[in-house]
Amino acid sequence: MYNKASLKAEEFISHEEITATLAYAEENKENFALIDEILAKAELCKGLSHREASVLLACEEPTRVARMYTMAEELKKKFYGNRIVMFAPLYLSNYCINGCVYCPYHMKNKHIARKKLTQEEIVREVTALQDMGHKRLALEAGEDPVNNPIEYILECIDTIYSIKHKNGAIRRVNVNIAATTVENYRKLKDAGIGTYILFQETYHKESYEKLHPTGPKHDYAYHTEAMDRAMEGGIDDVGLGVLFGLELYKYEFAGLLMHAEHLEAVHGVGPHTISVPRIKRADDIDPTVFDNGISDDIFAKLCALIRISVPYTGMIISTRESKEVREKVIRLGVSQISGASRTSVGGYCEPEPEEENSEQFDVSDKRTLDEVVRWLMEFGYIPSFCTACYREGRTGDRFMSLCKSGQIQNCCHPNALMTLKEYLMDYASEETKRIGEALIQAELNNIPKEKVREVCEDHLKKIEEGIRDFRF
Ligand code: SF4
Ligand code: SF4
């Protein structure tokens, strides 16, 4: 029985509800009166239910699909302006006892190089990341209670926050580790993490069990209920995601929105972010064996519909996607991107030798951070290294209410300009600096409140004098 407020995975992600939703969407995909009604509702920026959004996903009528894209672009401008927050993944360890069939870190892969960073190696990796200009990391580690126990992850977080190199600092550490206990989530919260990220991979229970044949991750309910335990452990900001390509995308889309509705119903706050990875080639993984791969067009439609269905949730896209795809979907609502990522354990400080490949997946966008920053600016965006909210205690429902009232913009915009200024002063090439300085001057005029603009201008001057870390 479907119940979004239930704490049981099979009730808040009810298979029957998803199949009924898909049937309803199929029946109504040419019901233009209903579709126009849903589009009108979406225009109010209050979000859509999984049923409403699924009808839009099924609709193929060109003018209405075009309206979905336009609306996503408008919504993105309204809530996120032209800012894009930057981050980088940091792989701590690829030891893993699970058997996920789409990931080269699965336990049966005996030829991939297994690595786990020591604290000294973390210092070197993080120093290299700071030297690029990164301020926000997403930690990644396989599940292995012997090699990667929670104590190891906590020690790594402590080390990362303690590294101050030149003007650099990692100011927000998000964590993507396996589903765990409330007690461990509490420890992560106490260690000062930002968002806890866990991809569902697929919401389809039967497929999930086949795709995760062995290891603790096989337990669908334990995995699906992880965000509830994380929130019980005090983590306010959680990040959802599915791995598109494993199951039918329409199924995943409905499941993803149902998960968001569930978090809102139970905890009063939806997901902080949604990631949209697509399955990619990797060591012993051939993505073509998964026959649910989606085209770039479907991918763009999914991004647009996530944007209009959950307007207040950040959307993340990684370097799994090419520059071309990123250009297309950033406009449609993506709010965070990674730059200059290495998806191997220890790849930042020096490139891995060919024979020691420990990559989780092939990176499609291989540009440097400076190139990504410049590209974003040339393309009309403000790259932001802001981490202010979590450091000011603006998390969970406090963050969401600021978001919903639109007030968060008063922080995001000046913070983007100040953190970009820091980047330009400390890390940018001459060309990037030139473009960035002009952008900051132009964007200062877009700060509506005079007082905020004055304070921001004053901080920008102080950044030139060498002072760092201002924030609203
Ligand atoms: S997806 Fe995660 S849990 Fe699964 S094999 Fe890869 S690292 Fe391990
Ligand atoms: S002010 Fe908050 S919401 Fe805005 S970019 Fe910074 S951290 Fe994100």
Helix-strand makeup class: alpha/beta
Shape: globular
Strand content: 5-15%
CATH architectural type of the largest domain: Alpha-Beta Barrel
Mean pLDDT: 95
How would you name the CATH homologous superfamily of the largest domain? Aldolase class I
**Oligomeric category:** single chain
The unreliable regions are none
CATH class of the largest domain: Alpha Beta
Helix content class: 40-55%
Count of alpha and pi helical runs: 20
Radius of gyration: 21 Å
Instruction: State the total count of DSSP E strands.
Output: 9
- Domain unit count: 3
Sheet with the most strands, sense and barrel status: 9 strands, parallel
Name a few traits of the molecule:
alpha/beta; TIM Barrel; single chain; 472 residues; 3 domains; binds iron/sulfur cluster; nine-stranded parallel β-sheet
Describe this structure in words.
- The chain is an alpha/beta fold.
- It has three domains: 16-76, no CATH class; 80-366, TIM Barrel (Alpha-Beta Barrel), CATH 3.20.20.70; 405-464.
- Helix content is 47%, strand content 9%.
- It is built from 20 helices and nine strands.
- Strands 1, 2, 3, 4, 5, 6, 7, 8 and 9 form a nine-stranded parallel beta sheet that branches.
- Strand 1 (83-93), helix 6 and strand 2 (136-141) form a beta-alpha-beta unit.
- 51% of the residues are buried.
- The chain binds iron/sulfur cluster (2 copies).
- One iron/sulfur cluster is lined by residues 96, 98, 100, 103, 105-106, 142-143, 178, 217.
